[in-house]
Design a protein that fits this description.
- Residues 19-135 form a coiled coil.
- It comes from Clostridium sporogenes.
- The chain folds into 2 domains: 3-158, Helix Hairpins; 169-211, no CATH class.
- It is built from 6 helices and no strands.
- The protein has helices at 3-21, 25-80, 84-158, 166-186, 191-198, 203-211.
- The longest helix has 75 residues, at 84-158.
């Protein structure tokens, strides 16, 4: 395993350890998004320099092309006037301009390819930031739901049958009711109670009426 691979594994292990210790993983995601946005900002600055170089080389290339065409026209003009010596000088300048043009054209093409790759990497980074933001929102919703469910379960556990035995409560109430009924039987009969008994209907006598 190479040195860089070991370093990368160490960094991953530290990141995982930080995640395990974090009380709020959403804060870690927020920090990750911020770091990615900082990287994007710096990458855009670098890309701007590369794109600026592309435009610079393009201008230099076009200038060199114009010079090349200008000297070529002078070669033809000198020959048409029978001045070969002047035509040679113009041709020499034309060849130099042509070499410069080809050199700048190669550099311009190379710079454009680098710029295109940078644009693609920027687009990928922007896409990653968007996906991370979406995951952060989903994770936050899941975390809130999990925390709410945990609180509900804790409440339900606190009011479980282990803490409050309904059968014991029912026995205590029944005992109170039985005691109250026993005390009612022990209560002395008063004058009003005796008159109330006189008004009570004799069910047996009433039933005999139906038989006759």
């Amino acid at each position: 395993m190479g040195v860089f691979s070991r370093i990368n594994n160490m960094l991953k292990a530290k990141a995982n350890n930080a995640l395990d210790k974090a009380e709020n993983p959403i804060e870690l995601l927020d920090q990750k998004i911020k770091d990615m946005e900082d990287d994007l900002h710096n990458a855009k600055l670098s890309a701007a320099e590369v794109l600026g170089n592309v435009h610079f080389l393009e201008e230099k290339k076009e200038t060199s092309k114009s010079q090349m065409e200008d000297y070529e026209a002078k070669v033809k003009k000198a020959l048409s006037m029978g001045n070969e010596e002047l035509a040679k000088k113009a041709l020499e300048k034309k060849i130099e301009a042509e070499k410069q043009y080809k050199h700048l054209e190669s550099k311009h093409t190379e710079a454009k390819e680098k710029a295109e790759k940078l644009k693609n990497r920027l687009a990928d980074l922007e896409k990653s930031i968007l996906q991370t933001r979406q995951y952060r929102d989903e994770a936050n919703a899941r975390l809130n739901t999990a925390e709410a469910s945990q609180k509900v379960n804790e409440i339900l556990c606190n009011v479980s049958s282990d803490n409050i035995n309904l059968d014991d409560i029912e026995r205590k109430i029944s005992k109170k009711e039985t005691t109250a009924a026993g005390l009612e039987d022990l209560k002395p009969v008063g004058l009003d109670d005796e008159f109330d008994k006189l008004n009570e209907v004799d069910l047996d006598a009433e039933l005999e009426k139906y038989k006759s």
